[in-house]
Amino acid sequence: xxxxxxxxxxxxxxxxxxxxxxxxxxxxxxxxxxxxxxxxxxxxxxxxxxxxxxxxxxxxxxxxxxxxxxxxxxxxxxxxxxxxxxxxxxxxxxxxxxxxxxxxxxxxxxxxxxxxxxxxxxxxxxxxxxxxxxxxxxxxxxxxxxxxxxxxxxxxxxxxxxxxxxxxxxxxxxxxxxxxxxxxxxxxxxxxxxxxxxxxxxxxxxxxxxxxxx
Amino acid sequence: xxxxxxxxxxxxxxxxxxxxxxxxxxxxxxxxxxxxxxxxxxxxxxxxxxxxxxxxxxxxxxxxxxxxxxxxxxxxxxxxxxxxxxxxxxxxxxxxxxxxxxxxxxxxxxxxxxxxxxxxxxxxxxxxxxxxxxxxxxxxxxxxxxxxxxxxxxxxxxxxxxxxxxxxxxxxxxxxxxxxxxxxxxxxxxxxxxxxxxxxxxxxxxxxxxxxxxxxxxxxxxxxxxxxxxxxxxxxxxxxxxxxxxxxxxxxxxxxxxxxxxxxxxxxxxxxxxxxxxxxxxxxxxxxxxxxxxxxxxxxxxxxxxxxxxxxxxxxxxxxxxxxxxxxxxxxxxxxxxxxxxxxxxxxxxxxxxxxxxxx
Lengths: 214, 360
Known about the structure:
The structure holds two protein chains of two kinds.
Chain A: H1 2-7, H2 17-23, H3 31-47, E1 53-54, H4 67-76, E2 83-84, H5 91-101, E3 105-106, E4 114-117, E5 142-146, E6 149-159, E7 167-172, H6 178-187, E8 194-198, E9 202-206, E10 211-213
Parallel strand pairs in A: 2-3, 2-4, 4-5, 5-8
Antiparallel strand pairs in A: 1-9, 6-7, 6-10, 8-9
Helix pairs in contact in A: 3-4
Chain B: H1 3-27, H2 36-41, H3 43-59, H4 74-89, E1 95-96, H5 110-119, E2 125-130, H6 137-150, E3 153-154, E4 163-167, E5 180-184, H7 198-206, H8 211-224, E6 235-237, E7 241-243, H9 253-256, E8 262-267, E9 272-276, E10 282-284, E11 311-315, E12 322-326, H10 329-337, H11 351-357
Parallel strand pairs in B: 2-3, 2-4, 4-5, 5-8
Antiparallel strand pairs in B: 1-9, 6-7, 6-10, 8-9, 11-12
């Protein structure tokens, strides 16, 4: 049976498994500890909207995935979480995520547990993503939105759980149409998607529970 | 080529392909933490991984490398981490999760332990309390479990801890923004005593149909003249979900309201995770004419004289002798170290009790 493993390789006969592995960009250097650190950054930002956490550039993923967004996927996605990539679903990126996460890549936005919006200036139809059920609000999508940067001095006003009074979050490289869409998303609480905003090396999060005022 | 030759050739090929990873694995025998994924992916990555493993080992000399970091496998941690993030996004809602068998029985805190295992890292300082005390069997066992599987630094001081796993109490020392509370929850469903069917309670939460909870509190008043519920006192989180704050005394309920810390609740047997994010409104249910009140004592702590902490009653003899002491041992010891003296602190027959709580 081992002959099947060596010869029926997706990249065709004549290439060994080692060569093929080198086509895929490497994952975390130390998966256990790196994923723990990335998760704590995610927990920090999700429980304190408006907070920006620096993940650094621990990964060099294929375009258009940013290092921070790649770290989020490698920390949270696996065989139980269908991932939607939209028009970012290049063969190289699909292979990268399938290899490191083992996650299914789906075409229908409504099936996705995690959805990549590769360019925050060009939003897909956000209503298409799962918002959960009244009985199971956690069965909703988490959007991974790639943006160009953050600003804590000016931006939208955030209030609600996780925010002491109010705070301000500025996001560069995000379509202005996102904020009205997110207010609609909040208005159907406890239903709704949650969003993780990723620049090259930083993340911020917007749980559905947070109120946004532009 | 015969079948036999084919098999031999393939074996040789496989041996070649396995060599770099396998050699590295054998050469680094003491560092059993070398990740299988890394050895599969090629020599360059596995070298980096070994360096990282050695760095970790220096920072955490006690960790038993025979276990994965924090005992749980990585897929389980990912599943729990996803549930935690959803729980934070929907405050007070109980997220079902695929709770694992842990190397201890249900009721010993398997839910809280799975939460701690999924969040603890090398930068954390871990505190475990049971009934407010750091030195009871359950707290000591859980602390030893995480020291062995993570090498995490531990403390008995509330102020020093970054993650506090608890059963039954919230520490008296005010929590800060840098802290995460992890609760061991036996029965996560506040409506369970009124409605045994999970499908019904789930619908009641979906429809915000919480009248039955107020009926239960009203029945307390009808029978006892006051709300007699003293622990697991139901709260309304963020104005939406009725939540059981786990079996903390109602004395601790006000500490949850707009707390700067993140509170995570884990029920291992019932397989539920829920959360109260920082600065979230947590209102104890009550009536206009019977407002929520916390326990009060006529006595003060016999050892440190505290009048504002939760007190345990200790029976001293069979002749009616008793005393009240702080349930929070860290709080009591810190007060005595600062010079506070309670009315019974000088009694020689209580010296063992005083020494025990001052051990840190």
